[in-house]
């Protein structure tokens, strides 16, 4: 019994399923950069790049989990409008639906994290922005 399946070449597999951070990541002195590298109906992946002093605004999403895997640098994570959590490469952060999150690169080097939005149609996820309370 033979099936007529078309075997994908290793090059096709790599193009669709293997990603290189240094070919995706782009920084800008203007503002934090979100560099998308894949999208499906259930998940969106992007590499966020922040230069020293840049921030990713405090926000939430109503129907997706937002998972961040820190791969370079250090900063602070905002889990709400008042608190800060020191973060660095090697840490994984999770914001469930409606949980506030954001961050600031407080280090002297560039900060990068891989972000995954997972849930109901993450490509069109809503974003609610907030203003942090200053102490």
UniProtKB/TrEMBL annotation:
<dbReference type="InterPro" id="IPR013096">
    <property type="entry name" value="Cupin_2"/>
</dbReference>
<protein>
    <submittedName>
        <fullName>Cupin domain-containing protein</fullName>
    </submittedName>
</protein>
<dbReference type="InterPro" id="IPR011051">
    <property type="entry name" value="RmlC_Cupin_sf"/>
</dbReference>
<dbReference type="Pfam" id="PF07883">
    <property type="entry name" value="Cupin_2"/>
</dbReference>
<feature type="domain" description="Cupin type-2">
    <location>
        <begin position="47"/>
        <end position="113"/>
    </location>
</feature>
<dbReference type="InterPro" id="IPR014710">
    <property type="entry name" value="RmlC-like_jellyroll"/>
</dbReference>
């Amino acid at each position: 019994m033979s099936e007529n399946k078309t075997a994908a070449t290793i090059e096709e597999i790599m193009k669709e399923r293997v990603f290189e951070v240094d070919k995706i990541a782009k920084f800008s002195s203007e503002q934090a950069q979100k560099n998308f590298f894949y999208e499906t109906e259930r998940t969106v992946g992007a590499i966020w790049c922040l230069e020293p002093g840049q921030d990713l605004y405090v926000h939430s999403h109503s129907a997706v989990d937002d998972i961040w895997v820190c791969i370079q640098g250090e900063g602070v994570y905002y889990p709400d409008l008042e608190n800060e959590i020191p973060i660095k490469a090697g840490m994984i952060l999770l914001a469930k639906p409606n949980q506030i999150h954001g961050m600031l690169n407080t280090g002297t080097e560039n900060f990068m994290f891989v972000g995954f939005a997972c849930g109901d149609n993450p490509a069109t996820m809503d974003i609610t922005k907030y203003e942090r309370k200053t102490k």
